[in-house]
Amino acid sequence: MPTAPSIARRALAALTLAGLAGLATAGPALLNVSYDVSREFYKDYNAVFIAHWKKTTGEDLTVNQSHGGSSAQARAVADGLEADVITMNQANDIDILFDRGGLVAADWAKRLPDNASPTTSVSVILVRKGNPKNIRDWDDLGRKGVSVIVPNPKTSGNGRYTYLAAWGAALKKGVSTPAAEALVGRIFANVPVLDGGGRGATTTFAQRGLGDALVTFESEVPLIKREFGGDFEVVYPGWTVLAENPVAVVDKVVDRKGTRRQAEAYLKFLWTDEGQAVAAKYHLRPRSAKVLAKHAADFPKLTTFTVDEVFGGWKKAQADHFRDGGSYDRIVSSNKR
Fold first, then answer.
1. What are phi and psi of 31, to 5 degrees?
2. CA 285 from chain center: how many Å?
3. What is the three-class DSSP state of 66?
4. Residue 256 belongs to a domain with what CATH number?
5. Minimal CA–CA distance to 133: which of 211, 221, 220, 238?
6. Distance separating alpha carbons of residues 191 and 201, to the nearest angstrom
7. 8 Å CB contact between 237 and 112
8. Rounded distance, CA 93 to CA 242, Å?
C-alpha cells in the first residue's frame, strides 16, 4: 500500500507533467504596444487575426495589448517594454526606436504598403449639442471665452496632430507663419487642462463636463457618442490634417523571442479586406478603395494636408515644434506670462 509521502510525490509529478504539457502546447504570444485611443479597434482586430491564424496554421496565438499616450508608449518600448509590434499614430514615435538602439529597422516605413500606414483618420472638433459657442473652424478655438480640451502634445500624438492641424490649416488659408503660431498660441491659452493622452482628454470633456470643444480623431467620435450619449456634434474644419497610423515590427524583440513570423503576419493582415473591414467598423479610414466605397457614408470627403506636405515630415516637425525649447514650449511659456 503506498505511503502518504509516495502518494504526495506521485501527485506532484502528475501536476508537474500536466504543467509541462500545458507549456508544450501553448502557442506564442505577441505584444502590440499602441496609442491611447486604438484599444477597441485592436481588441476586435486581434480576435479576427487569431481566428485566421489558427485556421491557416493550426497554431494557437495570443495577442496582448498596451495603450497610452503615443510618445509615452514609444519611450516605454525604448526603455525595455518588449513589444513585438508597435502601432502608432505618427511616424516619429516609431523612428525613435531606431534612434534609440536600433529596435526597428531604419527602413521600417518601406517594408509595408502606404508608408506602413494601413489606416488614416483626421482631426475634428467635437462640440456640445447645439454648438452653443458657434464653433466652425480652428480660428474659433482661439476666441476669448472658448474652453478647449486637447491632450498634451509632449506625450500624445493626438495633441501633436491638434497643434499641427490648426497651424497647417492657417498656412493653407494663406496667413503668415507668425500669424499661424499666434493662432495656435491662442488655442492653447484656452486649454484648462492637458491630459496625457486622447482617452484622458475624452473623459475630461465628456464625463467631467469640462470645455466647450474637444479636438480628437474622427474615429473617436462614434465611440464617444455611444459611451456618453448623443449630446455632442462633430465639426469638420475647412482644412484638417490627415493622421496616418504607421505600424512596425520591433526587430530586436521578435528575433530574440522567435516571433518574427507571427508579428509580420499580424501587421500584413491589416491590409487584407478582413483587416480593413474591422478598421472601417471603428471609423478608421481604410486604405482599400473597395472597403472605403462600402463605408463611404461614414467618411465625408474633406480637404486635408499631410505632415510631410506642410511641415517637412515628422522628424522636422518634432525638431521645430515639440523638442525642448521648440515652438510649443515658446507658446506655453508665453501663455504663462
1. -115, 120
2. 13
3. strand
4. 3.40.190.10
5. 211
6. 11
7. no
8. 16
| Identity of the amino acid at 307 | V
Q: How many alpha carbons lie under 13 Å from residue 301 in its C-beta half-sphere?
A: 1
Query: Would you call 18 exposed, middle or buried from its count of C-beta atoms within 10 A (0-12, 13-18, 19+)?
Result: exposed
Residues 221 and 94 in one domain: no
Are 262 and 57 in contact by the 8 Å Cβ rule? The answer is: no
Q: Are residues 142 and 218 in the same domain?
A: yes
What angle, 0 to 180 degrees and rounded to 10, lies between the N-to-C axes of helices 39-57 and 273-281? 160
Instruction: For residues 191 and 306, state if they share a domain.
Output: yes
What distance in Å separates the CA atoms of residue 11 and residue 145, rounded to the nearest whole number? Answer: 72
Considering the domain boundaries, does residue 287 fall inside one?
no
Q: Check: CB of residue 92 under 8 Å from CB of residue 314.
A: yes
**Domain assignment of residue 17, given as a range:** 7-117+246-271
Cell numbers found for residue 188: 492653447
Q: How many residues does the chain have?
A: 337
Quote the number of domains for the chain: 2
| Per-residue pLDDT tens digits of the chain, which is 337 residues long | 444 444 333 333 333 333 333 333 368 999 999 998 899 999 999 999 999 999 999 999 999 999 998 889 999 999 999 999 999 999 999 999 999 999 999 999 999 999 999 999 999 999 999 999 999 999 999 999 999 999 999 988 899 999 999 999 999 999 999 999 999 999 999 999 999 888 899 999 999 999 999 999 999 999 898 888 879 999 999 999 999 999 999 999 999 999 999 999 999 999 999 999 999 999 999 999 999 999 999 999 999 999 999 999 999 999 999 999 999 999 988 887 7
Same domain, 262 and 139: no
Compute, in degrees rounded to 10, the torsion defined by CA atoms 72, 97, 323, 177: -110
Judge if pTM exceeds 0.90: no
